[in-house]
Amino acid sequence: MSESSICQARATVMIYDDGNKKWLPAGTGPQAFSRVQIYHNPSNNAFRVVGRKMQTDQQVVINCPIVRGLKYNQATPNFHQWRDARQVWGLNFGSKEDAALFANGMSHALEVLNSMADAGYATLPRPVSNGPSPEELEQQRRLEQQRLEQQERERQERERQEWERQERERLERERQAAAGQETPALVNLTPLDINTLQFCSVSALFSDKCAAHDCPERKAGIHSAYQKQQEILRLIQGRVRQRL
Predict the structure, then answer these.
(1) pLDDT, tens digit, for every residue of 102-116?
(2) HSE-up of 23 (CA within 13 Å, CB side)?
(3) What CATH number labels 4-142?
(4) Where can this protein be found (predicted)?
């Protein structure tokens, strides 16, 4: 029976340069996405990873067998890696969905291989001293986690500053609105005020007419008019203070 693909994903295939301690794109030419598939051969229950560039020439950039005991490391949600007998492979997926799909396919293949009897089936060769050590892989994972946490803190700080800015603007608008309501209005005399002023004028005229005659009505009128004027002035002053 021929091989069949159990999953495929879009990813950039990388290999680890142990001499320079950095990742490099697999294959030749410019870096590009590849269609990475896991093939299963039911005749011997063998699995392998095959990746071809998504270009006209469909260059094969990875053809790696999956063996029992292989350690598949999901370093980040989008970057997974594993070690074989020759080197360390890395897949930089185009999306988290692609990464999850491929990881599920790899887990299925490893479960099938690990459940088989030891005799007659491929086992993981003794690892050679190339590629990052487990400590280096763990350090890479921690650095990536720290980077993601830093990005989250920066995002929260930007949101906090934006909220404070909007809150300051809202308080300033409320303060200006309150200040506008407290602006003193012009004092308008009510009809009652005008009538009382006219009464004061009549009282004063009455006092003038009686000025030539030293009579009791003149004295009583002057006293009454004066008291009325004082009362009216106090009333007007009180209203003015209330409106201010």
Answers:
(1) 999 999 999 999 887
(2) 16
(3) 2.30.29.30
(4) Cell projection, Filopodium; Cell projection, Lamellipodium; Cytoplasm, Cytoskeleton
